[in-house]
Inverse folding.
């Protein structure tokens, strides 16, 4: 059993970016907070599948060259090796789940 408190975790860039709630041994998951002017950054995974569930806000998501709007209530699964990016148009908050747990499996073109 593992227990974590979200309030004790931090976003990578203080006010935005990923906030990992649990990491390993089989999955990792957390919150992704983006603010206008900051983006996830285009990348892909060779083995990891990544799922996003939007809690609040709106953003443009691009998956393998296809761009569409996402907003609260949307769930998106990105398969390996689909390249993906999220660019917010307002404050944006989502849950992300990555499986399997391979933290080094992140690439840019």
């Amino acid at each position: 059993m593992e227990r974590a408190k979200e309030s004790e975790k931090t976003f990578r860039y203080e006010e935005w970016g990923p906030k990992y709630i649990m990491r390993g041994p089989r999955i990792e998951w957390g919150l992704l907070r983006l603010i206008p002017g900051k983006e996830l950054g285009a990348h892909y995974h060779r083995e990891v599948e990544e799922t996003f569930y939007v809690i609040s806000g709106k953003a443009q998501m691009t998956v393998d060259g296809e761009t569409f709007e996402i907003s609260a209530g949307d769930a998106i699964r990105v398969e390996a090796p689909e390249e993906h990016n999220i660019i917010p148009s307002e404050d944006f908050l989502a849950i992300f789940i990555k499986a399997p747990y391979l933290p080094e499996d992140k690439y840019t073109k």
